[in-house]
Amino acid sequence: MDDRLAVLLPVAAVWLAAGLVAEGLPGLDRARSLRRRTGWLSALVVTGLALTAAVLVAGLQSAGDTAIDRAASGLAVAAVPAAVVGMWTARRVRRLRAGAGAFAAAPETPAPHALRAAAAHPLIALPLQATALAALVAVLPALGVDLFATPGVAGPAITVAVLGVSTIGVRHALRHSRLAERAMQPAVSARPAGALHV
What we know:
Elements: H1 5-24, H2 31-61, H3 67-75, H4 79-103, H5 113-119, H6 122-142, H7 154-189
């Protein structure tokens, strides 16, 4: 077994768990559940960022061709979406948790559509899932599947990865838009019938 797996598997597992938790947030219809899940997601985000940064920093400080060096070079691609997670996603998750906390006093309080729309924002799930995909790609060479070493495979693999991330982004944007429209419906229906929109 490749010694990089001991370094890369925990990182990939944390990012994959974060991506799965983020995927399910908009489907939660109770404020208390939403608050609890965003707490889990916050913990996973902090853990993922800490593990990724630790591997990358250790790889920079290490000299030679050690397991940590090879793991860090594999995780270099994941550093970009992880940076997006650190700059934007973590703050959105924190605000979402605070918003859900305002409604979570009673166990069965429904989560407002506006909160669910915020949970479906592409800047929450997309960076997490892109980081998870990049971390899984870093694990592949440690398992003996090196796509970039095989001639003629690297180009199509990159194209498929870009198309996959784009598809995920479009799906999240459509879900966010649908929930945002539901959140606006009460305001639209509350407008007097004869009122003109200027």
